[in-house]
UniProtKB/TrEMBL annotation:
Pfam families: MFS_1. Belongs to the major facilitator superfamily. Bcr/CmlA family. This is Bcr/CflA family efflux transporter. PANTHER family: MAJOR FACILITATOR SUPERFAMILY (PTHR23502), POLYAMINE TRANSPORTER 2-RELATED (PTHR23502:SF132). It comes from Lentilactobacillus fungorum.
Length: 396
């Protein structure tokens, strides 16, 4: 542990950091139940509407490259307040659009602005904790973050019954402004001036990319990014798979998606409880292996069974393991003891969101007539992640 914090302070940090790190679930899961309606209302194709998801993920990825290194120079608090202010304004603009192409563009800027929450929540935690304590803190942080995938689709599905899809983005604007107020009044700066980078802001960005010379670091962030690719393969296809292919109602899909969100939250907590007995590396290798096996069973079911209860069980097991992997890989990377935690967190986020964006678009192109593209994408991403992680373990 780097600094002493009271229990009350730690609980507050978990709550506020868990909330601001939920930019992804807030921006994505909340409007997932509305995707089929948006396709009809905007008179467009499912793949174009899914592209708005990819655009948001791309914005989340690139925005972290800005917010992360700048926070190493100017501190964590200012970039967070600016980011969520812009997030709220762009959300209002999205609510007013009637063009799918304008929607895609604005979603990119929404992700770009909201990226500060994802990257800086990790940086703030690593400013305060290290080692096993950091793993335990990330576990609790991920559990709070996991609440949002649970409640977001339920809220979105409920709202779609009474308001148009634009109402969801009005709600996002309200959330954005509320977070600005919470950050302004309830969060102290965790990076003191004497620990900040000097020089021009561009130098901070250049120094961040210097981490890419570290082969182990690059393999770790790619392995983590591929886990995100698997998760977003599920996220982008889930509404079409369960509503169109399996004919679930919007409300039933929202409840199913919420159940899987609970699985992610449960999985996120598990590594913290095991951290004192088993290393993060051993846990990660084991969980990656079991996730590949589970995803392979999902692929086989798409080829031979198409059984809804079986698919629900397998997807729940997969996303629960996703929760474990995100806690483990994040802790491993942020514990590398490299300088400039904001830059490290930014490159981690870039890998997660860029690969997630790419895979969500690929799944959309492959079609929604079956869940085989989703299953193949998840299996491929996790197998590649396991290969990278195994190659790291073999290094002297």
């Amino acid at each position: 542990m780097k600094t002493k914090t009271t229990l009350a302070t730690r609980i507050w940090l978990i709550l506020i950091l868990g909330t601001i790190s939920a930019t992804g679930p807030l921006s994505i899961d909340l409007y997932l139940p509305a995707l089929p309606e948006m396709t009809q209302d905007l008179s467009t194709s499912a793949s174009l509407v899914q592209l708005s998801l990819s655009a948001c993920l791309l914005g989340l990825a690139l925005g972290q490259l800005i917010a992360g290194p700048l926070s190493d120079k100017y501190g964590r608090k200012k970039p967070l307040i600016i980011g969520f202010s812009v997030f709220a304004v762009v959300s209002l603009l999205i609510a007013a659009t009637h063009s799918v192409f304008l929607l895609i563009g604005l979603r990119f800027f929404q992700g770009l602005a909201g990226a500060s929450g994802q990257v800086l929540s990790r940086a703030v935690a690593s400013d305060l904790f290290s080692g096993t304590l950091l793993t335990k803190f990330y576990a609790m942080l991920s559990a709070v973050n996991g609440i949002f995938p649970v409640i977001s689709p339920v809220i979105g599905g409920f709202m779609i019954r009474y308001v148009s899809w634009q109402g969801i983005f009005v709600l996002l604007a309200v959330i954005g402004f509320a977070l600005v107020l919470a950050l302004w009044l309830g969060v102290k700066e965790t990076l003191p001036p004497e620990k900040r980078l000097g020089g021009h802001p561009v130098e901070s960005i250049i120094e961040m990319f210097g981490f890419l010379k570290n082969v182990r670091f690059v393999k770790l962030i790619l392995a983590t990014g591929l886990v995100s690719g698997g998760l977003f393969s599920y996220i982008s296809a889930s509404a079409f798979v369960f509503q169109n292919f399996f004919q679930l109602s919007v409300q039933n899909f929202s409840l199913l998606y919420a159940l899987n969100g609970i699985g992610i939250a449960i999985g996120s907590i598990i590594p913290g409880g095991l951290a004192a007995r088993f290393s993060e590396t051993k846990q990660t290798k084991l969980v990656l292996t079991t996730t590949v096996l589970t995803a392979t069973l999902l692929t086989l079911s798409a080829l031979f069974f198409n059984n809804l209860p079986l698919v629900i069980i397998l997807v729940f097991l997969i996303v629960t393991q996703f929760g474990m992997l995100f806690t483990l890989t994040t802790s491993i990377i942020m514990n590398l003891s490299l300088q400039n935690n904001g830059g490290i967190s930014a490159l981690l986020g870039l890998s997660q969101n860029a690969i997630g964006s790419m895979m969500s678009h690929i799944v959309g192109i492959m079609g929604s007539a079956t869940y085989l593209p989703m299953a193949l994408s998840i299996t491929g991403c996790l197998a590649a992640s396991l290969g990278l992680f195994t190659s790291i373990r073999r290094q002297p």
